[in-house]
Amino acid sequence: MPFVAQADVPREGTSSSPNWRKSARCGSNTTCVEVAALSPGSIGTRDTKQGTTGPILRFSATAWNAFVQRTKEGAYDMSADL
Question: Which stretches does UniProt call biased (Polar residues) (predicted)?
Answer without folding.
Answer: 13-24
